[in-house]
Amino acid sequence: MIRPLHPVEIFLQPGDHYFADRDTRIRTVLGSCVSMTFWHPQLLVGGICHYMLPERGGERREGDWPAPDGRYADEAIALLMKKMDAVGASHKEYQVKLFGGGNMFPETNKNINTMSQVGSRNVQAARRLAKQHGFTCVAEHLGDIGHRNVIFEVWSGEVWVKHTNVVSIAELETIDRRLG
């Protein structure tokens, strides 16, 4: 794929989503949040979401439906699917890649059931939603400890990930003693 001469650069904040054409590069930084990229290899269009939680909590009454919010996995996917619908291609033609869901506080989470951690729940939601909507997941970089810098180049569908582990408090104290 040919890289655009002057690509449009977009940075996603938590809760954001973006759908773009082949002239766009989208970046974000993930901790326990998850990003899902959607790319159409023939049309060279794609989108990405950066959600914070698997779903919106609380009870809803009939007629009490707030506008979709990209902070929640299911609602972020719904927002991107509306953009995909506008293009006219089947959702099944998009390739999906999943990123994030890191444990950002391993020292404080040692005694907590892993499945109750936000990052793990976000990972489960990404996999469930991709399957539920019939998307083909072609790559993932999920879980573990630390954060990720993610760059999605819409012109090629390539996603670049830099994963950085979180240094524990004990490791920081050891480094401090050596330097001090």
Descriptive tags:
alpha+beta, 60s Ribosomal Protein L30, Chain: A, four-stranded mixed β-sheet, 31% strand
Describe the structure.
- This protein is an alpha+beta fold.
- It has a single domain, classed as 2-Layer Sandwich (60s Ribosomal Protein L30, Chain: A).
- Helices cover 23% and strands 31% of the residues.
- The strands form two sheets. Strands 2-5-4-6-7 form a five-stranded mixed sheet, covered by helices on one side.
- The longest helix is centred in the middle third of the chain and has 15 residues, at 73-87.
- It is globular and about 55 Å long.
- The model has no long low-confidence stretch (mean pLDDT 87).
The CATH topology name reads 60s Ribosomal Protein L30, Chain: A
Would you state the CATH class?
Alpha Beta
Strand order of the largest sheet: 2-5-4-6-7
| Mean pLDDT metric | 87
Largest sheet geometry: 5 strands, mixed
Strand content: 25-35%
Q: Roughly how much helix do the residues carry, as a percent range?
A: 10-25%
Q: Give the tally of β-strands.
A: 9
